[in-house]
Amino acid sequence: MALRSNPLRVYVALTIGVFFSSGFLTFAAGSGISSGSASGLLQPYDLLYYMGVRAYFFEEWDKAAEHIEKSISIRQALLRTRRKCHDECLSAGDGILSYLETQTGDLWDLYALDWVQRRAECARFCVGRAVAPAGQLPVSADIDYEFGTRNAYNFLQLTYFKLNKMTKAASAAHTFFVTNPSHLEMRNNIEKYRRMEEVSEDAFVDREKELERHWEVYDSAVQAESSSDWKRAVEQWKDCVNVTLQQMEECRAQCAMASKTLPEDEAPERTGGVYEKAAALSLSLLACHQSCVSLVATRPGRVSSQEDFLPTQLEHLHIAQFKAGDLRGAIQTLRSLLLFYPSDADSLNNLQLYSETLGGDADASDLVPSQEISRYVKRSLQEKKLIYFGVEHLNFTFTDPDLWTPEDIVPESLREKWRAERERLSGTPTEEEEETDDSGFYAGGPVPQVGVTITMDDVKLNGTNRVVLDGVLTQEECDAILQLASSATSVADSSRGRRSPYTPHERFEGLTVLRALKLAQDGMVNQSDARLLHEIGERARVLLHSYFRSPTGLFFAFSHLVCRSPIPGHQEGRMDLSHPVHVDNCILEPETKQCWREAPAFTHRDLSGILYLNEDFEGGEFFFTKRDAKTVTARIQPKCGRLVGFSSGPVNPHGVTAVTSGRRCALPVWFTKETHHRDMEREEAEALWAADGQSVLKEGEKKDGEGAQPAARQGRSQASQGRSKEARREIRRDEL
Ligand SMILES: O=C(O)CCC(=O)C(=O)O
Ligand SMILES: [Fe+2]
C-alpha cells in the first residue's frame, strides 16, 4: 500500500502512541468493553476501532479482525438507529409550524430555528434509547476520516491475509479500493487475490455498497441510454431518482447526531447570547442537511461532486420517456424539473412540444410534478431561507451546494455584496492568476555543486519556478544506478516489473532506498549502489533547495527509482501518455482549470524533481503544460545527470509521452516543508545504515556541503532514533 505519503499512516501510529501514554486503552480493556453491546446498548465504535488497530500493530490478527469488524458493524447499527430516529421524529415540533404560518420577520426565523431544534432533540432522545452515552458523543475528525476513506478495510485486508482468510481479505481489499482507486499497492494486491485459486469472483464485493447504490443504478441507466434501450432507461432513471432521494434522507438522518460543537470558543461578539448560540446550532444542522447534496453526488473515490445531480437525472429521464413514447411521463418529469429551474427555456420549449404532440390532453390533472420532488424542493428552499438569514445576521458561513437556488432566496444585502465581489474579481485576467505561485519558492538561487549547470530557467521553460540542471550525475553514477535497477528487477519478479499504473502499454518498476538496502543486505545488489541511490537523492535535494531559495528546510516526502518500458505487442497506434498530465500536489481539473488540493492527491508535496539516468529509449519526453493540460509550454528530453525541478503546485502541470522502445529510468524526488510528512521509510534506511556503523548522513554532508540545512538534518536524525519502529510497522502494513 503506497501509504507512505498518506498522512493517515502517521495518524494511526500517533494515535496508538497517545493511547498508550494516557493509559486509556488499559482502562478500557479493564472495564470490560470488549463487545459492542454488553449492556444491550451500542458501545462507541471508535474505541473498538482503536483497539483493533492496536492489536493489528501487535500482530494479534484474530483480535484485530474481531475488533475492527465489530467497530464496523456497530457503526452501521448506529447509522441505522439514527435513520430510524430521524424518521420517527419527522413530525416533532410541528406544533410550531402553525406559528410559522402567521409570523414574519425575525420572529419567523426564531420560531423556525426552534422547530429545527425540537426535531433534533427528538432524534437525540430517540438515539439515546439505543446507544450508550459514550456512543452518542461525536467521534473525532480522525475517526470520521478513517471511516470516510474506508481505511478500516485497509487494515482488515492485511489482517485477513495473515489469517489466511483470502476471500475476506479480497473483499476488504475491494471495498477499500472502491474509494481509493489510485492506491497502487491495493490494486496489485487485488490482482494477486484474483490469481488465487481459493478466491472466487464473488469475493470482490463492496461491503459498503448500500451507501453507493445510487451510483450502480446511475451507471446502468447511462448504459441503457447508450444502447438506446429507452424503456429500460426510463425504469433505471426513475429508480435512480428514487434511490438518490433515499440516500439523501440517509445522509440527512446522520446530521442530528453528527459532530457539532457550540461555538463557545469563538469571540463573544460573533456568538452573542443564548439565542445566537441556539441559532448557530440549528443553522449548522441545516447546513449539514444541505451538504448532503454534494456528499450524495460525489462518487466513491472522487473529490468533486457531480453538479446538479438530481436535475440532471430528471433531464435524462424526460428524454428517455420521450424516446420511449411515454409523453405523459415526460411532461410530468419536465414539470418536476421546472421546480428547480422554473424559467429554463429548453424545458419550457420541450414542455410545449410534448403538450402539442399529446394534443389537448396535456393539462390533465395527473400530470403534476412528482410529490417527492415537490417536497424535496420545498424543504430545501425553506432550509436555504433560514441559512441565508443566519449568513446575513449571524455571521454564519455557508456554501450553497446547489446551482438552482433562486436569487430571491438570498437576501438583497448579500446579493449586493456578492455582486461587488464578482466585479472586483472579473477585472483579473485568468492567465495572470494561473501564473502566480504561492509556494514560497523563488527560482534563481545559486547552484552549489561544481560541474552542474543551469540549462533552462523559468524564461526558457515558459513558466514559474521551473528549472533544468545538467551535470548532476556522472556517466559512471548513472550506469551504477541503472545496474541497480536491473538487478533489483530481476530479483523481484521474473516478469520484469508490474504494469504501469498510468498506462496499460507499459511496465513500471519502482525501487525505494529501503528496498535497495534490504536487497543489499541479502546480497542481491551492491551495497555501494544502494547507498549511491540514497546519496543522489540527497544531492538533488540540496541543489533544488538552493536554486529555489526555499525559505524553510526541505524533507523527503517520497522518492523511488522508476523504470518504464513498453510491453511488447501493445504498442501499435498508441495514443496514450506514459504519465498523463497532472499536478503533483493537487487534482487538476483541466476543464475548469481548478486544482483541488485534497486527498487522494499528495497534498503535502511542495517541491518536485526528476533526476534522469539515461536517454537510450524512444519517447518518454517530459513536458510542462498550462492548466488546460493541453497547451505544452516546454519539453525536456531526459539524459544522464539531468535534473528537472519545479514547485509541485498548479503552476506546473506536467506529463510524460509514451515510452515506445527501450527502458527509461529516472529518480523522481518529492520534498515537503513539513517535518511530519517526511518519508519514514527513507529514515528507516538511514537508521539501519547508522546502526551498521555506516553514517550515510556524513557522506551526504561531505558531498554536497549541506551545512545550510540544520533543521532537516536534525529532524532526520531524531526521527531515526525515535520513529524507526513505527516506520517498520507501517511498512509491514504495506506488504503482502
Ligand atoms: O518521469 C518523469 O519524467 C515524470 C514523472 C512524474 O511526473 C511523476 O511521477 O509525478
Ligand atoms: Fe509528476
From TrEMBL:
Its EC number is 1.14.11.7. Belongs to the leprecan family. PANTHER family: LEPRECAN 1, PROCOLLAGEN-PROLINE 3-DIOXYGENASE. Residues 556-673 form the Fe2OG dioxygenase domain. PROSITE patterns: FE2OG_OXY. Its cofactor is L-ascorbate; Fe cation. The lineage of its organism: Eukaryota, Metazoa, Chordata, Craniata, Vertebrata. Residues 723-736 have a biased composition (Basic and acidic residues). GO terms for molecular function: L-ascorbic acid binding; metal ion binding; procollagen-proline 3-dioxygenase activity. The keyword Signal applies. This is procollagen-proline 3-dioxygenase. It is an enzyme of class 1 (oxidoreductase).
